[in-house]
Amino acid sequence: MATVFKTFLNDDIATTRTLLHEAIPVHGGIVHGVYPEPDEPGKQEETNIKNYPHKMFQSVYDYPYLSSSANHIFDLTVGYAAAKDNDEAYIHPWTNDQQVSHKKKQKIYYQMAQVLVGHGIEGDILLFDEDGDILAGGDKYENCLYISIARLLNKDEVKKGSFFLHLDVGPNVPVSQANSDPLQSNYVLLVTDEGSENDYRVNSPAGDYGILRARTWSKLDSNGEVECEVPYDPNDPDYAARWAASSDDNCGGVDDRVGLIYYQAGVIVLSPHAFLNYDPAESSSSSGSGSSSDSDSGSGLSAIESAGCFGKLPVVVLNANNSEVGCMAEHGEFEPVIVHDDSTGASFHIDDAFRELDIPTICTGFRKRMVRMAFNNTTELNSTIYFCRVNHNDFNYSSNPTYLDASKIRVKDSTVDAPVAYITTIGLYSADNELLAVAKLSEALRKDPTNEIVLRVRLDY
Amino acid sequence: MPLFKFGPNDIFYNQVETHPQNEFFIYDRTVYYNNRTPRHGVMEFDDDGLPTHFVKHVCPGYVSLYELNIDRMEQAHDVIPGKVDQATMIYPFITKSGALNAFKTVSTVDFHNFAYGDIMTGSYPLASSISIERYVGKDDAFWDVCGKDRPHIRALKNTLNYHKKHSPYYAYKQDECGGDCGIKYEPGWDKETQELTLISIPSIIHGSGVERGSVDLRFYLTGSLVGQLQDINQNGELIQTAPENSPGYGEVAGVVLYDEGFLILTGSWSLDDTHTERYRYCPEPINEPHQFDSPRWLYWGTQGYNEPDTCGESADPTWLDPTTAVVSSSFYMSFNSTTYVPTITMLAHAKKGELNHSNNPTYLTRQPKSAIMDSKGCPTGTFRKKLDAYVNTREYRESSRAEIKNTVRTPYPDPDGIFDKQTWISKVGIYDENRNLIAIAKLASPVRKNKDREFTFKIKMDF
Q1: Contact by Cβ (8 Å): B173, B158
Q2: For chain A, what is the domain count?
Q3: Which of A359, B288, B349, B436 is the most buried (most CB within 10 A)?
Q4: Nearest residue in chain B measured CA to CA from A29
């Protein structure tokens, strides 16, 4: 029990904040391939994918979700804006299920937009904006894929600039990426928010958000090794030269924005534009719903190369005859990759998939396109640091009973000896002298009138 | 929606004391915690097609702290952002900053060697299990190797002596009992030099302590119980209570430090003279005749050495032949840990005459325009537009024709009952002082509330 108290002054208390991060890699094999799909007969107990009767989203776990060991990783869902009501492509002789699904997709879009983008001055729900500059207008994301990261992994927020998503943008139906096998995909696109550490938006009710951009487009060999890689770098002189050498006007003004990432909410809003439209030029029958595409991918690569699209977003734009190869000029002028519906065996381009398929099926198709995802989460550790200053004339005596021996100070033999004490513990008291916390030293500190000590006591919470 | 403040007697802060049971069973070099069998992952296999890791990436008998890494590949540690086909374990990291925070595993010297902005990484999983340390006595030939250096015992000296008030068997040295302990015990011990076994239970398992009197230790030989220790007096003494009339029956074979989570076994009598096994495994290698001995409490938890164990830690191949594993003995320990769960109990009152009205649209008979959002009436024409644009004046007006639905039940199918305002309470929302909804309590079934009825909802929240 202390008998001497020192009051903290303003300069003696400081608050700090430490950011603890965790690197969270999500290998594509977890998302698709290692564990059975939920619709696989007799394997329902072993799947790590959870579909719900309401068919509004799909949950992904890192282990069969019926096991108590499983952790929820993220949810997947899709949505689009009500503008589709006026789109002829969406005026369709739908079945009742498709009509219900159509409404659900719209509701999901607006629910997400309401939370993440907020309301306009008239109370209307704002749409996802490509560049985050809502007042300036500009293009909106009206079709969206959502990845909602579980709070368990997201913690306080995703670390800005740490998000990486590799997408399989090849022309073929993805093959299971099981275990540690090499990637089965040939064409992989890197989507990232790099640079968002210093360039993020704050005009969302859900916190900060960044712009996701398509960065590196890779072609992989049969062993999954990168065979060639095309970094997107407008400042690269070679890149600029290639860009200038291109005679195709469509190659100008490529926009690499493919989505948004909301850091505190842990939601990734991905445009179908992220699927970089790899489609071999020779594949003249690859557009439209229900079609399949498994043409020779090598010829498509050379076609893209000859069109001068390396260094840009390698997008194939088909003309009316489905024969011309070019680069994407604006969003919407592309032929997206396919989503394969395992239940029917049919393949869909992603625009068609959005329109025709229910949400879990689209999510499954999207999931199979996820090669790898990685991000760093953040946990804020708040600390208060108390600087306990022991002046030369402080705490040189002790009220401990062992300090005295036969009513004589044990450590003093004569009156000229300096008093000595050993500090072992610091007590932090409230204003009304209640002991709130105790800090112990790993070894006792000798204190006498010849020395001064500053003890730094940190309280984390 | 009405909001009510909690009164001074409406909120109680409490804590629930829980005692979950923990069981350890040790057999054939495997520790089973709470009867869980080790499961292998399916994410990665070796060249022979065998799984390379357990699902939780911890050895059997271990508890993983966060359980974040479940069935992952253990290929590499650091994540390389641009690399496509790379899967690693989840791991924590801190960037060194002015806050001077670091992981506890980073030493002071290492910390100072990091520059500001450098990244300090840790590893998951953080795992823990019981540990068993055996020390030979001073008279043993291997005292210098396996007995002399016992810092963990020495660190418990003050704690052991503190608990002498519960039992003299806690005394670090017999002399410190003062020679007047009042009961019979083997004189002359000194935990600094005597042969003993220390069993340490980590706090992730025992929580705030081991429940007094709950420890149960058993020693099995080929499946038959040859000894059982229990603290039947709840004073920390582990007394042999079974089998009846067995060697050492009724004797004290050790003590338990309940608050700290330690067991110290000192019982050195033979539990079965007819059986010997390779319990003594000091020094290494162990194929020595002196390593055979009869089962004793000192050997509780001995697993021996043999083949590479199931956690991949290979033993020295020279130990493989003959087998040196303790395969005829198995060991069991159970105890109740103590954990405290802080709880808040809130009493939400629905008093008479209150909460009899709802803003739910279904509360009204008719839907159309029961509420209108419109510009105020006075200005018209261009002036009104300007006013709208610059002043943004709006008003909320409830339709005068809105009619409350009569939901009073009658025994007759057609006529309505006498009108009475009533609602059904289905949820209670808890708000903070800034009116942020922070919790919702849902009722199993809605309760009917009219002006004559009153309810108190007891809401309990655990942390």
Answers
A1: no
A2: 2
A3: A359
A4: B43
The distance of A330 to chain B (nearest Cα, Å) reads: 26
Is B228 within 8 Å of B221 (Cβ atoms)? Answer: no
Residue B77 in any domain: the answer is no
Chain A, residues 188-207, CB within 8 A of chain B, namely 188, 190, 192, 194
Task: Report the alpha-carbon distance of residue A374 to residue B298 in Å, rounded.
Answer: 50
In chain A, which among 333-372 make CB contacts under 8 A with chain B?
A: 371-372
Of A15, A20, A167, which to mutate for an interface test with B (greatest number of B Cβ within 10 Å)?
A20
Identity of the residue numbered B119? I
B67·A71 Cβ contact <8 A:
yes
Stated pTM of the model: 0.80
Q: Chain A within 8 Å of B102 (Cβ-Cβ)?
A: no
Whether residue B243 is contained in a domain is answered as yes
Adjacent-strand bridge partners of A51: A58
* Minimal Cβ distance to A22: which of B71, B90, B97: B90
Strand, helix or coil for residue B371: strand
Q: Is A86 helix (H, G, I), strand (E, B) or coil?
A: helix
Query: A179–B45: do the CB atoms touch at under 8 Å?
Result: yes
Is the ipTM higher than 0.90? The answer is no
A370 and A421 assigned to the same domain:
no
Domain that holds residue B333: 130-337
Q: Which residues pair with A59 in a beta bridge?
A: A50, A75
Q: Please identify which residue in the block is written with the tokens 């006026």.
A: A86
> From the list B70, B93, B392, which residue is nearest A70 (CB)?
B70
DSSP code string of B191-244: TTTS-EEEEE--HHHHBT-BPTT--EEEEEETTEEEEEEE-TTSSSEEEEEEST
Strand, helix or coil for residue A29: helix
Number of domains in chain B: 3
Q: Chain B contact for A20, CB < 8 A?
A: yes
**For A308-342, how does the pLDDT look when each residue is reduced to its tens digit (9 = 90+)?**
333 333 333 333 343 333 333 233 333 444 555 66
Q: Is there a single domain that holds both residue A107 and residue A187?
A: yes
Tokens matching residue A57: 């989203």
* Band of pLDDT at residue A343, cut at 50, 70 and 90: low
Q: pLDDT of A35-60, one tens digit each?
A: 998 888 888 889 999 999 999 999 99
Q: If we measure between CA atoms, which residue out of B342, B101, B104 comes closest to residue A459? A: B101
The string of DSSP codes covering B111-174 is HHHSPTT-EEE--S--EE--EEEEE--TTSTTHHHHTS--HHHHTTHHHHHHGGGT-GGG-SBG
Phi-psi region of B177 (alpha: psi -120 to 50; beta: other; left: phi over 0): alpha
Query: Can you state the percent helix, strand and coil of chain B, rounding each to 5?
Result: 10, 30, 55
User: Is residue A445 located within the same domain as residue A362?
Assistant: no
For B252, the token pair is 């004290």
Whether B137 and B193 have beta carbons less than 8 Å apart is answered as yes
pLDDT at residue B312, rounded to an integer: 44
